[in-house]
Design brief:
The protein folds into 4 domains: 68 residues, Chorismate Mutase Domain, subunit A (Up-down Bundle); 87 residues, 3-Layer(aba) Sandwich (D-Maltodextrin-Binding Protein, domain 2); 74 residues, 3-Layer(aba) Sandwich (D-Maltodextrin-Binding Protein, domain 2), CATH 3.40.190.10; 93 residues, Alpha-Beta Plaits (2-Layer Sandwich), CATH 3.30.70.260. The longest helix has 39 residues. It is α/β, with parallel strands linked by helices and 370 residues long. The chain is built from 12 helices and 15 strands. α2 packs antiparallel against α3 and α11 packs antiparallel against α12.
């Protein structure tokens, strides 16, 4: 009689072999990470001896772009960038401890944007207002600040535009954050009596709330993160907020993605008391005050076409200095010292009351996917 064929390798043996491989790879990764950390620390020492800036955004963006381009493995480009952002952030912390101001409290989308740009190893300082972010940066109590500049549904953030026009801060970077609202609560929907959220979040989830929580009282809060704080001890309340707020305050997400319109994205500016160095794939932001005369708007726009410069954004905003006087927030492709942009700016300045360059910076690659 022929005995049944025995499996050459059992499930447990195969899994043990694979786990040993992963453990071995992890040890090699850990060793390489510490090698990188040693070099990063030496970079910090050299920068200190030459009085050079510790943080160079263009260099970090170039590293991430290069790694994304070279990646040919199973990991998606976004995953590679995410992993290396945290590696860079942890190594940077060995050189210097960056302090970042954002509109608080902890768990807001501003907080998420700050982490997405700088990684989690920086120190994040919440402020109560957008003005507070500008003030902290201008007084150099922090190294950088994060401020929302526009939303894909609601448009430009006027308050940020006003502060940019009249502060001494510079724009040195941008980051796009998908805005997905979650219903966060200690209880299931049937037990929820009140929902706290920022008025904008309530407006963006109105249809879902009417369909799923028609009897719940909707209560405005100063921010979505503050709304989540109310849910910590009150089981009959819920809040509308992002993933980070739920994580920070330990309140579970009951329903994800309750916004009425998909694809909602907010763009944030990174501001600094100093301007950035030359960078690749640059974008330049500026504010232009026009003379009150016939053809003023045409005279401002025509140089962009004349010098073949791509105009990417234009927003008008009252100057608040004189009735019916407007300033224009303008963005275009290119670095401020590029020859063609220099010529265009000369033409614009000759026909305008005032031109203020807010900054040139590397475009966030995620902007091409929004």
């Amino acid at each position: 009689m022929v005995s049944p064929k025995k499996d050459s390798v059992s499930f447990e043996e195969k899994m043990s072999e694979l786990r040993q491989s992963i453990d071995s790879i992890d040890c090699r990764i850990l060793s390489l990470l510490n090698d990188r950390a040693k070099v990063a620390k030496e970079v910090g020492r050299v920068k200190n001896s030459f009085k050079s800036d510790y943080y160079v955004p263009a260099r970090e963006k170039a590293i991430l772009a290069r790694l994304r381009e070279k990646n040919q493995g199973l990991l998606q480009g976004e995953a590679v960038e995410s992993v290396f952002l945290e590696i860079i952030s942890a190594c940077r912390a060995l050189e210097t401890n960056l302090h970042i101001a954002y509109l608080g409290p902890e768990g807001t989308f501003h907080h998420s944007a700050a982490q997405a740009y700088f990684g989690r190893s920086a120190e994040f300082i919440p402020t109560e207002t957008i003005r507070g972010v500008f003030h902290e940066v201008e007084c150099r109590r922090v190294d950088y600040g994060i401020v929302a500049i526009e939303n894909s549904i609601e448009g430009s953030v006027g308050q940020t535009l006003d502060y940019l026009a009249h502060s001494n801060n510079h724009v040195i970077g941008e980051v796009y954050i998908p805005i997905s609202h979650n219903l966060i609560s200690q209880s299931e929907l049937v037990d929820i009596e009140k929902v706290y959220a920022h008025p904008q979040a309530i407006a963006q989830c109105r249809r879902w709330l009417e369909s799923n929580l028609p009897k719940a009282q909707l209560i405005d809060s100063s921010s979505n993160a503050v709304g989540v704080q109310y849910c910590v001890d009150d089981r009959k309340t819920a809040a509308i907020a992002g993933n980070l707020a739920a994580e920070k305050y330990g309140v579970p997400i009951q329903v994800r993605g309750i916004e009425d319109v998909a694809g909602n994205t907010t763009r944030f500016f990174v501001i600094s008391s100093s301007s950035s160095e030359r960078c690749e794939n640059a974008k330049t932001s500026m504010v232009v005050f026009l003379r009150d005369q016939v053809g003023a708007l045409y005279s401002m726009l025509e140089p962009f076409k004349k010098h073949a410069i791509n105009l990417t954004n234009i927003v008008s905003r009252p100057t608040k200095q004189q009735a019916w006087q407007y300033m224009f927030f303008i963005e275009c492709s290119g670095y401020v010292e590029d020859e063609e942009l220099v010529h265009a700016l000369d033409d614009i300045k000759s026909n305008s009351l005032y031109v203020k360059i807010l900054g040139s910076y590397t475009q966030d690659s995620s902007s091409f996917k929004v």
